[in-house]
Design brief:
GO terms for molecular function: methyltransferase activity. With about 230 residues, the protein is α/β, with parallel strands linked by helices. It is built from eleven helices and eight strands. The radius of gyration is 17 Å and the shape is globular.
Amino acid sequence: MKGQEWYQTAEVAEAYEDKRFSDGGQLIDEREKEAVLSAVGPVEGKHILEIACGTGRFTTMLARRGADIVGLDISPAMLQEGRKKAHAADVADHLEFMRGDAARLPFPDDHFETVVAMRFFHLADTPASFLAEMRRVARDQVVFDTFRRFSTRSIYNWLLPMGSRLYSRVEVERLLNGAGLRLAHEEHDFVFPYGLYRQLPDGVATALRDFDTSIMGSPAGDHVASVSYWDARI
């Protein structure tokens, strides 16, 4: 995985949400949560695994809605932040955080109804093997996102020290077919890359988002989006 050592430091974990999901980054957080809830559907009582759960943004959100959820991450520091979040939301007894490797998930086949992986595949060095492992432990559904090739994300990638893996639709379809998954639903969004939103104060970011949304609502929208949300079924 790209940036694995960087990702596991306590300093990064402690500042992770403030740097990514404050100011204009709140718009990203809201949209990602909307995408997950839209894909997963009714949550209460559903047995869910979140891979690369980080600070528990989605794990805690789903637990608050009644999911039986496990959040798995390779970083002890990120998991510690996730536990703090769960305690603050009063759902610590409704979920479990585990340290583990997404390449070797410590669960039997078909153990979860749904497996979710957000902000994961852009760092994956062997996406096919990761997706196959997610498929192995999922009984019904796998939900994940990717950054799109041939979008503004390609330009933004030049500015990043370790870059991101970008995917065309053909590449995603190939991954799904290889893992024995079928695409049930897809959503595409954000003409402008996440990094731009994170640099802007709330008011400016909101105005940009309104413009962004108007473009996404046009016939060209799906062709210029920088992010895709995929809902795949067994």
